[in-house]
Write a structure and sequence with these properties.
Distance between the termini: 39 Å
Number of strands: 17
Low-confidence stretches: 4-9
Strand order of the largest sheet: 5-6-16-11-12-15
Structural class: alpha/beta
CATH architecture of one domain: 3-Layer(aba) Sandwich
Strand content: 15-25%
Oligomer: single chain
CATH class of one domain: Alpha Beta
CATH topology of one domain: Rossmann fold
Shape: globular
Helix content: 40-55%
């Protein structure tokens, strides 16, 4: 398989969207998470597959396709044989042989089920791999790391499942107190491993995310605690999510015909993974951003003005976000990879609470993306109608995607909506829409009956640092 890449003679490096952090190799970028200048890492050049490369992916196992898609990003940091073993182990934890199966709902309408992993959410696809890759890197370096993550619901459970019990890592997960579903909370707070610490912040997800960024931008604390990030700011998460775009598109006839994807999103990581796939040569007709009433991305595409508002709690809590961190990566691309311009826009956001894109930048985004906002009534209606018409029961996040997809004329192109969570994770919303609560798989039932363990903290940076310092083993047991 011929993978074309700029600067083929040199190893792929990762650069920050803000331009002043040093370029890193894959493992260093993965362990760093957020760049030291506050930016997000991206490959310095995009690997690109030929049409014959993509055609050859049809019929491969998920693990085989995953290795082909990700190997250009990993480079020489891990041998091909060892990498394939890690990838196979990661996806052996999924309950479906296809890992991310396609389900046909109607003519040219498909669902890509991403919820067959250990925590029944799409975050497992990347997190099961990331946990193994980070643990390997730390063991080889005889080092420890302190992982701190913020979650609007699903990331925390997936991270805890992937990192619990790993001797080289302590993990601290922040979630907004009272703003995740009971099932999502219990999937996090019932973990018994000593290296897992759940923190309920008295605020919104955006508050949790702001605390996380402040911690990473505090270089003294970052170095003392050997901080590593597993939110979708971590490039390895985006890399792993890119795979299922290739898997599903190849199954539907790519590269012979284009495919449209409708993506429920909050923090923009899953949409950006689709953008990466398109840059790598996958013929994506369009990426449709599907949001709930927290519609900052829809408003931005309409007006060019990015201005966060108040977060509104909905039945799709993983999308209750107003500051979409990964959007910075696409802005970097839209600005022609001009890091000075990105810094200016991020400074405007920090100082004035908003920024405005140029006409060229906005045209770039509109050429790649469409966007739809779906309100609560439409979410409930979609769950009910899809169940009645097809017999398929979906969760509220997937319903946001399906409602958005229905507004986009198919034009003979396969439309794939990403089904991001199992309906049993949101039994109240699904039950209200259909009149019947969804059946919970056995792996979820075990969590629902277990004792919870978490701490509640004020939305205060000092309190968070003190909590982590008192528990991070890197300060008392620096070696493994």
């Amino acid at each position: 398989m011929a993978v074309q890449m700029q600067n083929q003679a040199s190893e792929l490096r990762y650069v920050s969207t803000r331009g002043t952090a040093p370029a890193l190799g894959f493992e260093d970028a993965m362990l760093a998470g957020l760049a030291r200048d506050g930016g997000l890492y991206l490959p310095a050049a995009w690997p690109r597959f030929t049409p014959s490369d993509i055609k050859a992916m049809s019929g491969l196992s998920y693990a085989q396709t995953a290795c082909r898609v990700m190997e250009p990003f990993v480079g020489a940091d891990i041998s091909q044989k060892e990498f394939f073993g890690i990838v196979e182990a990661a996806y052996a934890t999924f309950s479906h042989e296809a890992v991310t199966p396609l389900v046909e709902l109607g003519p040219d309408q498909w669902l890509l089920e991403l919820f067959h992993g250990p925590t029944l959410a799409f975050k497992d696809v990347a997190m099961q791999l990331l946990g193994r890759l980070m643990d390997r890197a730390l063991r080889l370096r005889k080092a420890r790391a302190t992982i701190v993550g913020a979650t609007s619901g699903d990331t925390g459970a997936a991270a805890i499942e992937a990192f619990a019990g790993r001797g080289s890592i302590d993990i601290f997960i922040l979630h907004p107190h009272g703003r995740v579903s009971d099932v999502q909370r219990r999937q996090m707070t019932t973990a018994r491993a000593d290296n897992v610490h759940n923190i309920a912040i008295q605020g919104t997800f955006d508050d949790c995310q702001a605390l996380l960024k402040a911690l990473f931008n505090d270089h003294e604390q970052r170095d003392r605690l050997s901080l590593a990030g597993v939110n979708s700011i971590n490039w390895a998460r985006i890399m792993a999510q890119t795979v299922y775009y290739f898997v599903s598109a190849a199954a539907l006839g790519a590269p012979g015909r284009p495919v449209r994807f409708c993506v429920p999103t909050g923090n923009f990581g899953d949409v950006f993974a689709g953008y990466v796939a398109s840059r790598m040569g996958l013929p994506i007709d369009r990426l449709v951003i599907a949001t709930n009433v927290n519609d900052i991305l829809v408003r931005t595409l309409k007006s060019g003005r990015y201005e966060p508002g108040a977060v509104v709690a909905t039945s799709s809590p993983s999308m209750d976000i107003q500051v979409s961190s990964n959007f910075e990566r696409l802005i970097f691309e839209a600005a022609g990879r001009d890091s000075v311009r990105v810094c200016q826009l991020m400074s405007d956001l920090a100082g004035h609470g908003s920024f405005t894109l140029s006409e060229n930048e906005l045209s770039f985004l509109r050429s790649t993306l469409a966007a739809e906002a779906v309100d609560e009534e439409q979410v409930e209606c979609t769950i009910r109608e899809v169940a009645r018409e097809t017999g398929y029961v979906c969760d509220p996040h997937t319903a946001v995607g399906l409602a958005a997809a229905r507004r986009q004329p198919a034009e003979g192109i396969p439309v794939v909506t990403l089904a991001t969570a199992h309906p049993a994770k949101f039994p109240d919303a699904v039950g209200a829409a259909t009149g019947k609560r969804p059946h919970a798989p056995s792996r979820l039932e075990e969590k629902l009956g277990a004792d919870e363990r978490f701490d509640i903290l004020e939305n205060d940076y000092g309190a968070l640092v003190a909590f982590i310092e008192a528990r991070a083993r890197v300060l008392t047991e620096p070696g493994t």
